[in-house]
Write a structure and sequence with these properties.
By secondary structure, the chain is α/β, with parallel strands linked by helices. The chain is built from six helices and 38 strands. It folds into three domains: 3-99, MurE/MurF, N-terminal domain (Udp-n-acetylmuramoylalanyl-d-glutamate--2,6- Diaminopimelate Ligase, Chain: A, domain 1, 3-Layer(aba) Sandwich); 112-308, UDP N-Acetylglucosamine Acyltransferase, domain 1; 317-350. Strands 8-11-14-17-20-25-28-31-34-37 form a ten-stranded parallel sheet, with no helix packed on it. The protein is flat.
């Protein structure tokens, strides 16, 4: 299936002001990067560092920002828009809707649906899925193969759960959420009381509340709260293999990259980012607009917006070992420096 440029602009007219420079009937067969694009492909330029690739690209059309307007027009057909990355994201959504439309909703005969569950019109249930008692699934939601939905779960309209997603009892998912394969929502949080050398389980009596437009990556886990709910507010995005501990609260439109972890009872503000493999320790608080670099370990609360990094940079092993030894000696070196400063100050006073 193909799309003409004029069809793309008309379909997205309500989302952004875009200007087409060139013939509107150019036919697009594929979306691609600047380097890989062919003569029937649509691409985009979102960062000035890739400007050198623009002139060499064979793309039929390139989406660019105002600063690249002249260079793009010299190359050929282009679409000029204030935020080319955002516009290209909208094009990918349009492309998927046109080329991979959703099948008509059906309920597979092998699915188990408790008689006390409530399914609104237009709900799709895949093969061998299991829907527990008291669960409510809103219109347009899609539950894929082998999903397990516990009792008294709420799933909002137009949300999509991919294969093998588990949603435990008493959890809720908002509207238009996307949950990727293998995610587990509502497993018990890691809560134990140490008594006479033994770990005694603390029953996790809270749930998980997920807002609207949340996306959760494959094999990510969000633990249920001990007493209060674990909460992901609207627009939160989790990559694959992200661990969210019990009683965590994550603010609106915060994003966590793959293998990040947030320990129990931590609070992340709105519009934060946490890089891949980074860890936020328990009971800490991150303000709005805090950005944590990949592989960092957050050991204290961060109460001011900004970009924070906390890891030991990689080096060849010999140099790393020498630096590690020096790091252990920093306290003693600091004391020696203070003594030297005092001695120097004393000599200056005498002179």
């Amino acid at each position: 299936m193909t799309l003409r440029l004029v069809d793309i602009l008309q379909s997205l007219a309500g989302n952004a002001d875009a200007e087409l420079l060139g013939h509107p009937d150019v036919v697009i067969e594929r979306l691609s990067t600047l380097e890989a694009a062919g003569p029937h492909d649509l691409s985009f330029l979102s960062h000035p560092k890739y400007l050198g690739q623009l002139a060499q690209s064979a793309a039929a059309c390139v989406v660019v920002g105002p600063s690249a307007r002249e260079a793009a027009q010299k190359r050929g057909v282009c679409i000029v828009v204030d935020d080319p990355y955002h516009y290209f994201a909208l094009i990918t959504q349009l492309w998927k809707r046109r080329h991979d439309p959703l099948a008509a909703p059906t309920i597979h005969p092998s699915a188990f649906i408790d008689s006390n569950a409530t399914l609104a019109p237009g709900v799709a249930i895949g093969a061998f899925a299991c829907i527990g008692a008291g669960t409510k699934i809103a219109a347009g939601a899609r539950i894929a193969e082998h999903c397990v939905i516990g009792q008294h779960v709420c799933i909002g309209a137009d949300s999509r759960l991919s294969a093998r997603v588990t949603v435990a009892d008493g959890c809720s998912i908002g509207e238009r959420c996307i949950i990727h394969p293998g995610a587990v929502i509502g497993a018990d949080g890691f809560g134990f009381a140490l008594h006479e050398g033994q770990w005694i389980k603390i029953e996790q009596l809270g749930g998980v509340r997920i807002g609207n437009d949340v996306e959760i990556g494959a094999n990510s886990c969000i633990d249920r709260g001990a007493l209060q709910d674990t909460v992901l507010e609207d627009g939160v995005k989790l990559d694959n293999l992200v661990q969210i501990g019990h009683n965590v609260r994550i603010g609106k439109h915060t994003a966590l990259a793959g293998c990040a972890g947030v320990a129990g009872s931590a609070t992340l503000g709105a519009h934060c980012t946490v890089g891949g493999g980074a860890v936020v320790l328990g009971h800490l608080q991150l303000a709005d607009h805090v950005h944590v670099s990949a592989a960092s370990v957050v050991t204290r609360s961060i109460l001011k917006p900004g970009h924070y990094t906390g890891f030991f940079p990689i080096d060849d092993n010999t140099a790393w070992e020498k630096n590690a030894v020096t790091l252990k000696q920093l306290h003693a070196l600091r004391d020696r420096l203070k003594q030297a400063e005092k001695a120097l100050s004393h000599l200056q006073d005498k002179s």
